[in-house]
Amino acid sequence: MLSSVQNVARILHSFRVDCPELSLTELSRSLQIPKSTMFKLLYTLQAEGFLERNEETGNYRPGRQLWTLARTMLSHSVLAKEALPFLRRLAKETGMSAHLSYFEHGEAVWIEKVNARSEIPLYSRPGRHVPAYAPASGRAILAYLPQTLWGPLLAREWVRLTPHTLTDKDRFLAELSRVRRVGYALQREEVDLGIASIGVPLFGTGKTPIASISIAGPAAVFTEENASRLGGLLKEVASGVAEYATV
User: Fold this and answer.
1) Using CA atoms, how far apart are residues 52 and 39, in angstroms rounded to an integer?
2) Structure confidence at residue 245 (pLDDT)
3) What pLDDT does 1 receive?
4) Backbone angles phi, psi at 172, to 5 degrees
5) Per-residue pLDDT at 73 exceeds 60
6) DSSP states of 155-168 as a string?
7) Can you state the percent helix, strand and coil of the chain, rounding each to 5?
8) Are 39 and 31 in contact (CB under 8 A)?
9) How far apart are CA 28 and CA 84, in angstroms?
């Protein structure tokens, strides 16, 4: 195997969920590659979009090209295929768009979608990603993740996607407590004006969520009473997906 190709593979293998960013020095030391050589490898990977550099810390992290490849694989994964009939059921019963999403590096990423009967345009589409603090799909996962994994997200400067986006971090943590109490997340017009969504976590064999299931539609539909009913339906469907797909 060519040493340069092997080194590229070793660099990419160094990034994990619990180690999302690494510096040139850390990579050089752990992989025992001279700094000058490591710099050239990182520069090339960054230029090709496989890595990106955090301007605040100077560290490197997986880039958009890797996420594009990952999303392509996820869209054809067993989970996405097995979840599709359940998403169709949700869309049919609620008249809203149904989604399967996952969490990565502080963002919620949609990997499957079944459109609603309505013609209302939605922000969601497979491959779209937004900060996880805004959509119900992201909050549903964050609420059940170990707090040690919140660090990178909480360290960022949060931006408003709409005038209604919750960016106060103390209030957000309180909102996650509410999500854990009722079992579902709800957002109104925080990602797209006029649109609300409700989401629940999808658990695998452990207690950590591997994805989320959500529905989205006109904000006026998501009254307090209706949200509770829809949240119950989503939890029922998520349990069915987890059991059927053996995730």
Assistant:
1) 13
2) 60
3) 44
4) -65, -45
5) no
6) HSPP--SSTT----
7) 45, 20, 35
8) no
9) 43
Nearest to 102 by CA among 199, 180, 200, 210: 210
**Which uninterrupted H or E stretch holds 149?**
none
Q: Is 214 helix (H, G, I), strand (E, B) or coil?
A: strand
Taking the CA atoms of residue 64, residue 66, residue 69 and residue 72 in that order, the dihedral angle to the nearest 10 degrees is -60
Q: How far is CA 19 from CA 98, 105, 151, in A?
A: 32, 10, 11
* Backbone φ and ψ of 189, nearest 5°: 55, 30
Distance of CA 139 to the CA centre of its chain: 9
Give me the sheet containing 209-218, strands edge to edge: 129-131, 107-114, 97-104, 209-218, 195-203, 185-188
Q: Which two tokens stand for residue 102?
A: 């996952």
List, in order, residues 6 or more apart from 138 with CB less than 8 Å away: 101, 103, 107, 108, 130, 131, 132, 185, 199, 212
Residue 83 — very low, low, confident or very high, per pLDDT cuts 50/70/90?
confident
Sole residue written with tokens 């989503």:
234
Query: Does residue 71 surpass a pLDDT of 90?
Result: no
Instruction: Read off the pTM.
Output: 0.67
Cα-Cα-Cα-Cα dihedral sign, residues 228, 232, 238, 241: negative
